[in-house]
Structures are given as C-alpha cells and as structure tokens.
Here is the input.
Amino acid sequence: MRDVEQTKQSTEGIRSVYIHIPFCRNICYYCDFNKVFLEGQPVDRYLDGLAKEIEWTLQDVPQRLATLYIGGGTPSTLTLVQWRKLFADLEKYFQLLPDCEFTIEVNPEDVSRELAELFAAQRVNRISMGVQTFNEKLLKKIGRKHTAADVYRAIEAFQTAGITNISVDLINALPGETLADYEETLAEALALDLPHYSFYSLILEERTLFSQWERHGKLVLPEEDLSADMYERTVAALEKAGRKRYEISNFALPGKESKHNLVYWNNQEYFGFGAGASGNFAGCRTQNIGPVAHYLKKISVGELPYRTHHLESRQEAIEDEMFLGLRKASGVSFAEFFTRFGQTLDEVYGPVIERFIDQGLLVKEADRIHLTPQGFLLGNIVFAGFLQD
Here is the structure.
C-alpha cells in the first residue's frame, strides 16, 4: 500500500507541524521556494491529497500541537471556502494546545476583513506577511503586486480581528536599491511598531528570473559592502527599537520570537505536509515531491509523497545541530550538545572552535558558543567549518 510506514511510537509526541500551500497569483522574480502559478491548478484536489497525507502519516495517533505553521507559496491565495475546508480537516487530526502558536503566511493584497475574521475564529494567532520593501518602484522591479497601502490595510484588518502578533518580511540589496532607499523602508517598517521583523539580503537562487537576468547581464545588484551596511543599519535600528536579534535574520520583542522557527533552529522534531515540504521525525529527514501533479499522483496510488526519506547518521545529526544552532544569537549549548550526542563540543570540534575564536567570529562562554557581530556577517563561513569534508 504505502511506501513508508510510520509506527505509532515514531509519531507520538511531536508537537510541531508545517503545512505547504504552493499556489501563487504571480511568481516573484527572486523566489525559489516550491510554488506554482495558481491559475488552472487543482487546488481542491490538492487539499484533499493533503488531508490524506496527514491521515496516513499520523495513523490515528492524536497530535497536540505547540506550533502550527502554514506557509508557501502563498497560502492567502486560497478562497474562504477552501480555508474552511482546510481548517475542518486540520481539526480532525490536530488539537491545538492552549498556548499553541498558529502562524499563516499572507501577501498583503490578499487580505480582507472576512479572511482576517475567519483566521481569528480558527485560533490563528500569528501572521507572517511578505512585504519585502515599502518602495513601490522596487516592488515592481522584484515582481510584487501589492502596494504600501495594501500593507497598512492588511495589518489593520488583522489587528481589528484581534490578531496582533504580526511579523513582516523585508529584503535588502534589491536591484537599484540605495542605502537611502533601504533606510526609508526600515523606518517605515519600524513605524508599524510590530512585535517581530525578519530581514533578508537578496540572494540569487537558481531557477529564478533574477538568476537568468544576471547571467545575461540584465540585472545589476548592490555591492556586497552595501548589503553589509544595510544589515548593520538593520541590527542597530532594531536593537534601538527594543527588537532583539535572536537569529541571524530575525528580531523580536521579548517573548515574541517565532516558536515554530525555533523548532527548526533547535533541531527538534516536526512534521512537514504538502508538496515540497520537509520533515524531521523518528531520526529521519523527509522531503516531499515538489511538483503538484507528481505529489497528487503519489497520493492517488496510496503512497506517501516522499521524494527522499533519509535516516540521519550521527555525524549528520551533529552537523545539523551546529549549522542550525549557530544561527541563533544564543548559539549552541554545551550541556544540550552533550545530552544529545554523549560527547562534549570540544571533543568533537575543539580545533574548529578555537580557530573561529581566533578569527573573531565565535565567542566561547561558560555554557555555550555563539557568533560574534562579525560572525553574523560571515555566518556561512563559520557554518561550513562545522561540516565534514
């Protein structure tokens, strides 16, 4: 019947779930996430397939969730009718704990008062909104369809509905963006007085329009030094506004850190459902098939839609612990590392740690190691040092 059978013991007690909705009304020029243009897609069949994947994976084991995250793609492209179906299906398989963090990603232009009220009625209590920039010329350059006015309207709709834990994503180093442009976006974002902000520097990813244009000399990006200046301005402005950097790209008021994303960075278990979704449970890293048609074909023949189902080696688990944990401002705990792996950090990585300390990229404290301010700027160099050749 199904190609991978999970035991009840392997799924029991997992408290976090990610659900992927891959549909988008338009494709942004920089995005390489698993997504597909909405028009003509079998959205209703996809939601049916998603429910079957969840049912087959859980095998009647009730899951009480501390975090639930619906991402994409663009989940907010679903209609109200489709949302009601999805919420009804989720209610069959999951019970939200009293303090469950329930996040949904949205685009500003999709938000209506009806959608905000429906989310609030279903115990959604956190919104992650793709804003990217408040500069409308730059929004057009990167393929976004919303305006700054859409952002304000969407935030007001959610706040009126009672959802006040709102995060916005912004991207710097956009084509043609100056430092003055970015500082205006940064000031406008902070004026919203939100509890959480995520800031990313533009990265050219394969299979994106930006990557194609760059190869043909049709895309000019800011210099790396300017991107670094933008990041440093971000850190200073957010710290001044009381939003502490708790991960390389994420800043929050105390207590408003993303609980779900911390599950990833703490290298904890979670389920991933939907086309292209990743999971980490029962010692395995899973990756679902990405194309919607292929995902649905697997479901139609009664198989879980895994592209890969990989039992991690001890070395891989250790590398994940370091790669993910060092993204956090708090870094990697000596005690937690020893509890998980039965060796001290110094036994496994002593020379690597000392080298990065000498280079001013890591700090070693009594109970942990973490990145320095310079280490945050050069994080990928540090992470690579903890990977086996």
Remarks:
- Confidence is low (pLDDT under 50) at residues 1-9.
- The chain has two domains: 8-265, 314-389.
- Residues 9 and 282 are 9 Å apart (CA to CA).
